[in-house]
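Field log, afternoon session.

UNIT: design team B
ACTIVITY: writing a sequence onto a fixed backbone
BACKBONE:
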């Protein structure tokens, strides 16, 4: 299965695409000396098929439906090496999951993302980064963080994001400023919205490709038709709902040995979001995430885990329970793959997701196992 998605639908779909410009400095030189006959344009890709089983298709808190499934996936990347002071990267990923025992609401899930990035090297460590991303999502998701009492549902939507950034590297230190604007369109009952804002980042490279970075982002969000609500969650006619989310994240990427077999990624983040009304939708989120990866001898093993704590200071559990709503989201996943030959590899994966809360309808858990074969080209 593909990585799970973030709280805002489509946002993490776009993040499936790692821009080449964000690689460590030694891998993003401004002007490479290419060996004779070495192609300036490079490409890579893979297609895969597999089977699996999920014990909670709808993320339900009671009587969850289960099903076996088949999955098909594809990834393609085309990039121009950073030569003559510019580079381009084009990437696309997608997957399609079909359930053998579908429910009336869920028979399949799909996601896809396409990204194009242009990097211009301006000299003296400066570079300009222009990125255009499109994302498509048709997947069961928990949207209760931003929709209050909404139950998990199948989200169908599209998103388009343009981001312009400037970045400077001095020795092993770097700093960057990005400004992005997005348009997201969803099937009802979710509402379409605009989102835009800046992000500031600073970082330090060290060791064999290790990195420590800190970022701050503010990204105001304006809904097309959603209205403000009163203290009980009832809509206020003739109003327009807006959010002001702000996020601070500390990221630590550590390469533990010279052959780069072992690598860990640690992320600590804090998010605060306020609405422009009574504060009914306000929340704070504290998140800790850890990933460990091992590569050697044709094997690649990875494990990841994350815990996110949500607090909703102005949102009661229910109309008859006035205590403030709280929620904890837990996620864990392991994946192993074995390279059989130059083009073929086998994989197996397990994914666990659980939501804990003082509100009954927020509670659920889901287990997913899958395996298959992939062809690289």
């Amino acid at each position: 299965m593909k990585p799970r998605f973030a709280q805002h639908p489509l946002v993490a779909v776009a993040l499936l695409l790692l821009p080449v410009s964000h690689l460590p400095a030694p891998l993003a030189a401004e002007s490479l000396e290419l060996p004779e006959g070495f192609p300036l344009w490079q490409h890579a890709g893979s297609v895969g098929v597999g089977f699996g089983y999920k014990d909670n298709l709808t993320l339900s808190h009671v009587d969850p439906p289960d099903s076996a499934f088949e999955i098909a996936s594809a990834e393609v990347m085309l990039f121009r090496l950073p030569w003559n002071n510019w580079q381009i990267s084009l990437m696309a990923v997608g997957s399609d999951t079909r359930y053998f025992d579908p429910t009336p609401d869920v028979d399949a899930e799909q996601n896809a993302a396409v990204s194009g990035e242009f990097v211009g090297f301006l000299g003296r460590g400066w570079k300009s980064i222009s990125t255009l991303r499109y994302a498509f999502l048709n997947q069961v998701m928990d949207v209760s963080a931003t929709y209050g009492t909404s139950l998990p549902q199948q989200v169908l939507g599209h998103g388009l994001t343009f981001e312009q950034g400037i970045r400077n590297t001095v020795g092993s230190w770097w700093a960057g400023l990005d400004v992005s604007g997005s348009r997201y369109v969803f099937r009802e009952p979710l509402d379409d919205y605009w989102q835009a804002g800046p992000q500031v980042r600073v970082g330090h490279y060290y060791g064999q490709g290790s990195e420590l970075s800190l970022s701050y982002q503010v990204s105001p969000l304006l809904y097309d038709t959603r209205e403000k609500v009163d203290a009980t969650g009832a809509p206020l006619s003739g109003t327009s709902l807006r959010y002001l989310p702000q996020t601070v994240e500390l990221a630590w990427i550590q390469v533990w040995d010279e052959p780069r077999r072992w690598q860990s990624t640690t992320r600590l983040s804090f998010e605060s979001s306020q609405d422009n009304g009574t504060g009914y939708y306000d929340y704070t989120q504290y998140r800790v995430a850890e990933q460990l990866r091992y590569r050697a001898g044709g094997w690649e093993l990875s494990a990841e885990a994350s815990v996110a704590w949500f607090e909703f200071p102005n949102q009661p559990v229910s109309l008859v329970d006035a205590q403030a709503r709280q929620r904890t989201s837990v996620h864990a996943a392991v994946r192993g793959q074995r390279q059989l030959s130059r083009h073929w590899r086998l994989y197996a994966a397990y994914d666990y997701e659980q939501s804990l809360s003082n509100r009954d309808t927020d509670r659920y858990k889901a287990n997913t196992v899958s395996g298959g074969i992939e062809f690289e080209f």
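LOG NOTE: DSSP finds two helices and 17 strands in the chain.
NEXT ACTIVITY: expression trials, pending approval
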